[in-house]
Amino acid sequence: MIGYVTIGAKDSEASGKFYDVVFQALGDERKFADGGWIGYGAAGPDKSFMSCHTMICKPNNGQEARGGNGIMIAFKAPSREAVTAAYNGGMANGGSDEGKPGFRPPEATSGFFGAYLRDPTGNKICVFNV
Fold it and tell me: Which of 15, 42, 103, 107 is most buried, by CB atoms within 10 Å?
């Protein structure tokens, strides 16, 4: 089981705007922002680092962040509507399209419903509901 994910960002604030709307659509929230780090977790009163499942920051090694070729992180959404809201919010906040919301495979009418997009740094994510 994954404990948390760290996503490299060229510009933490620009990426923060993208992830704010994506995670809000999934029922999560920004827990904190400090020193170029932004943390996200389930909505609730705990705003600590320990309550985060995803961290956004510049790489620790000082090199420029770049989207990993072949790496994708998938976030489960509570509904198809949340998938669409996360996609639309991400696209409106610096994201780029990698696959509009819909069933996969496209001819399906139930099952896996997902959307694919890249954040402002180029990291690919999927938001899905099953």
Answer: 15
Q: Where are the alpha helices (DSSP H) in the chain?
A: 12-25, 80-92
Nearest to 8 by CA among 24, 20, 19: 19
Give, for all 130 residues of the chain, the pLDDT tens digit: 788 999 999 999 999 999 999 999 999 999 999 999 999 999 999 999 999 999 999 999 999 999 888 899 999 999 999 999 999 999 999 999 999 999 999 889 999 999 999 999 999 999 999 9
Stretch (H or E) spanning 130: none
User: How crowded is residue 71: how many other Cβ atoms within 10 Å of its Cβ?
Assistant: 9
Please give the Cα distance from 90 to 74 (Å, whole number): 14
* Cα separation of the two ends of the chain: 19
